[in-house]
Amino acid sequence: MKSFPSHDFRRIPLYRDVSDAEWNDWRWQMRNAIRDIDTLARVMRIDDAERTDLEQTLDRFRMAITPYYASIMDHDYRLCSVRLQAVPSIRELEHDQSDMDDPLHEDLDSTVPGLTHRYPDRVLLLVTRICSMNCRHCTRRRLVGQTDTAISQENLDRAIDYIRDHTEVRDVLISGGDPLTLATDRLEEILRRIHAIDHVEIIRIGSRTPVVMPMRITDELVAMLRRYHPIYVNTHFNHYDEITAEAQAACARLADAGIPLGNQSVLLRDVNDCPRIMKRLVHDLLMIRVKPYYIYQCDLTRGISHFRTSLSKGIEIIESLRGHTSGMAVPTFVVDAPGGGGKIPIGPNYLVSHSDRRYVLRNYEGVLATYTQPSNIFSECWCELCREAAQKPDATEGVAGLLDGSAIALEPSDLRRRSRSKRTTG
Ligand SMILES: *Cc1c(COP(=O)(O)O)cnc(C)c1O
Ligand code: SF4
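# pyridoxal-5'-phosphate complex -> structure
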């Protein structure tokens, strides 16, 4: 089987005298994150023009690069995909008309500070603002690296009370910042309290540490996590150059503890906006036992407009994967809707045409096939779940509710036609 590279950190003069024990200690990595230009200049060559640009950018945004991540950057190549995600660019100061501070309304829609309940059955809990790294493309820049704090005990208590009171919440996503920057016992307290709630079925943790600080995935952490199964971990690889022997070992420790791993990439201009790069990335991910889950269209967050691609690029990438490679390797391309609408999947169209009887579908090769529907296509379901649901006629939300008869129309609350009819009839 293919093996992934390990980069010798001691080739960087600044780290020549660092011991293996220090390097492999995640707290050492966090303490020694590169936060200023002089330290960065000891890791890679920076000319005067770059220094001026960096000074200006760092006035507005912060930098933090773990020594580990710095050791996998190509120090001579400006367009290195790893470096572009770590080293600030003057282009972060560009303003685009569509930029927003909180495009996903995560603050606006939060019920309790740190908790967003957007979908019917699951919540997002932001447990810390701290990250080991400040990714240049971060969508939560408004939180990350401004004030370094974990969630307060009071807000954590309120969030847990909320989850306990809302019996429909069966899935809790723990994110941040990066939850794995918390001390293991602090994270354990959060997991233990969530796990103790009867109606919570699964816990998911979103963390970039397997990519930017794989030494965080210690045996001690993994032994703790497995006490709170079913636990899922979603991580965030954007380019195959991030998949190193160390990252592979970190993912293996998690997977060996029975934790299913998923990956959420962000489509980033000049980093991974290429079908060939993405194909190699998803293949390499499967080799380290990580299932590609989502590719996100880059958000409208302020300061990242230079990373944005067209939506078509994502569609092109999915077109290049589906059918061409293992279905297991194909993620869903999503746009996180500005305004808090949530993730909306988009992709190539496979439905070409249809009549009452026949559907014309195309495959990845461009072959057109017909699927003839049974002559009696109407079906009614009598399963026990549908019989139960029939007792609660408006149970289904959204478009699915239009299909199952829960509602006959969905209307905006400020529909003008409605206010006109109220005026004339009222
Ligand atoms: C992404 C997200 C989720 C989880 O979405 P899935 O599609 O279930 O992975 C839940 N809540 C919020 C606010 C999110 O942004
Ligand atoms: S790890 Fe995630 S939250 Fe933290 S800076 Fe990177 S993208 Fe943002």
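# post-check
The pocket of iron/sulfur cluster (ligand 2) is lined by residues 131, 133-135, 138, 140, 144, 176-178, 208 (CB under 6 Å).
Residues 215 and 254 are 12 Å apart (CA to CA).
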